[in-house]
Amino acid sequence: MRVLVAMSGGVDSAVAAARLVADGHDVTGVHLALSKNPASYRSGARGCCSLEDSHDARRVADKLDIPFYVWDFAEEFHEAVVEDFIAEYRAGRTPNPCLRCNEKIKFAAVLDRGVALGFDAVATGHYADLRRHDDGSVSLHRAADAAKDQSYVLGMLDQGQLSRCLFPLHDVEKPVVRQEAAALGFGVAKKPDSHDICFIADGDTQGFLSRYLDDRPGPIVDSDGQVLGEHRGHHRYTVGQRKGLDLRVPPPTGEPRYVLSIEPVSNTVVVGARGDLAVRTLRGIRPTWTGSPVEGPWRGQAQYRAHGVPQDATIALADGELSVVLDDPASGVAPGQTVVVYDADRVVGSAVIAEAR
Length: 357
Prior knowledge:
Helix content is 23%, strand content 29%. By secondary structure, the chain is α/β, with parallel strands linked by helices. Its main location: cytoplasm.
């Protein structure tokens, strides 16, 4: 099988490529250049998107003796990921740019180009499990390593995309991946994982957003509308945030206050007690399905953060929107986040959270 491996420069994609070579596939490595000026994004060997990462990926490809290319996706990345990130914060929502990158770049643009060039599949170093069935369908499941499972950030992929994907690390735990990399002589064997947003070089999300969004002051109010302080731009806040509120009016109970909601039209940030963050019902828009749509209602699990704990829920599709009713209340759920729904360890679909109450 001709396989195109997206090589980030980290240890996971390096070992994924090595496993495919060992299995006898015709493997080609590709590194994605996501900025016209790499220095404007993160620098340093952190595992994704920097100039050093492209060199690390090339060195691994050389050791494996496979072809290696750098593909320029800077324009597509800026439009689909960076501009979307800014627009979502402008609208008072909290996006996940890594999930958006998977959706629009790694498993859309790259896959389309790879298929056009004659490749049979695209492989990555994601920790997730694909199972192929006798009827030709493919199902997406959690990886063997629960601590590293990345099925959440793949929950927006459809059947056509999944059918051309390979995840060679589905059955292995991270320490074993590092051992395999060391045994193969890869310099990335001890390279730390990447956790930051790749296009925010210094990790200062608020500073980054302030270059694009207006730091227009506005009121911070409680749920009754009483003005408690002033903010310096609503994009500096997200639901569940506690620090940085700088309120002038102390809470009557002495309990700390948290951001409950952001109202961009009135430029208002609403705060309240921790208990006020509790929600039971999530309304999701733009649902996607890894297989056929499931109307429901049905019993499953919902996850709304990449490393969150799945929660039991009743799930239903109605009028093109996903309704998720959690058995137990959740805290700090923000519009703009993605909810991924599971049937046991199988990913069923996903939706963007429009409302949590």
